């Protein structure tokens, strides 16, 4: 799995850490960040589908563009 380096404000990192560890929902920061990215991308896909920007396979919806 590729590694990615990002800069995160301390306040956001502190919030993330509240959900990580023995008492949290995630085993480690990487799991928490992967889950957050996946959820965000899924939400963006749903928004795109509602607006006809992308069909369910992830391809551009050229039919919707041609009827506008």
TrEMBL record:
InterPro entries linked to this entry: Arc_rbn_hlx_hlx (IPR013321), CopG (IPR002145), Ribbon_hlx_hlx (IPR010985)
Superkingdom of the source species: Archaea
GO biological process: regulation of DNA-templated transcription
Pfam families reported in the protein's UniProt record: RHH_1 (PF01402)
Signal peptide, first to last residue: none
Biased composition (Acidic residues): 58-68
CDD domains registered for this protein in UniProt: RHH_NikR_HicB-like
Record's protein name: CopG family transcriptional regulator
The species this protein was found in: Halorubrum persicum
